[in-house]
Amino acid sequence: MNYIIIDMEWNQPSSKxxxxxxxxxxxxxxxRIGAVKLDSGLDEKDRFHCCVLPKYxxxxxxxxxRVTGLRSVxxxxxxxxxxxxxxxxxxxxxxxxxxxxxxxxxxxxNANLAVHGIDRGRLPEFFDLQQIFAHKIAGNGxxxxxxxxxxxxxxxxxxxxxxxxxxxxxxxxxxxKMGFDKYxxxxxxxxxxxxxxxxxxxxxxxHRIESAEAAMSSRRIxxxxxxxxxxxxxxxxxxxxxxxxxxxRASCGRHGEFFVRLRLTLCPDKTYSxxxxxxxxxxxxxxxYEKSLEKLIKM
Length: 299
Fold this sequence. Notes:
alpha+beta; TATA-Binding Protein; six-stranded mixed sheet; 33% helix
């Protein structure tokens, strides 16, 4: 088994009117493919780089050009996409898995295959290294860019960014540090658990609130609905942790207990924004709430 770490650059239409919509919307046309091949021990075996001639978006989108440093002339050489795709598959070999940093590469590849009438064939769906890093390494589910992940591991950022091959090299370096191969077997279960966790967290922000007192006396702000079924939950009193943070516990007869947090932020116009977050209670949140109650600093 080989592991293919892929990164691609794509051009975008200059305007909405120029966007190809059939047989699928083409929001990005691939112009560069970069990849690193790792063996089963995660040692690097080979690298792949290909320039792709665009068929539809031949004029460089100015925003893409600023990020990648590429110009329209950069798209006047290379291979047609069907030939580039065929060359990439041959380079991958027979037994391989494909990984990318983020999910966009997989979506863009699907769209490009569709507009060229090419069956995806033996190219597997991509594993998302960014998701593995967020949930298995960082453990908080947040999206981390390649630069942040390099910094996390203390890896050098010695290559030009936003280059297909260089970014594939960076992703491979991060992946090796992660030991991503041990997370692939439970990958789908990880994504399902992450999706369920997202459903059990709800937040909403209210703006232009005159004062903290006005916020805490407003039923629409202090009201708690279950993030799963949207029924109104029973809740305790809000305990004031400090001048900008209030917490309480609430329960839904169908879906159990939740922790509710109100965060007040003073805005430049001297009004407040209030963000209400509802999520499953963690031991840290429960301790925070109970300590606040002990101080008897309540609304």
